[in-house]
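haha ok so turns out i had the wrong file open the whole time. this is the CORRECT one, sorry everyone. sequence first:
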Amino acid sequence: MIVTGYQATRARKLTPGEKEANRVLAAARAPVEHGFGHLKTWRILTKLRTDPTRATDLLRALLVLTNLEVNRRQLGLAQDCRSRPARAPQHDAMPPR
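then structure:
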């Protein structure tokens, strides 16, 4: 099943309910689109020659591993922020890397 958002026309504006439905749809679609974006960085997939079922299993595994890594990094950054003492902002000529 394909779900599309509501479209406004020049003659008809979207109702508040239609706008909210579009927001909910966009929020659900964003992680999927980000997942496709992550997969496109895996150059090895351009040489993937296998049946669709196996390819689907491999892609799911890659997405799981990617999500675990992203979540691990985000959690690590959150833990680093809590364990460090607060510092005054620095005003250097060059921004930190």
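The two ends are 45 Å apart (CA to CA).
again sry for the mixup
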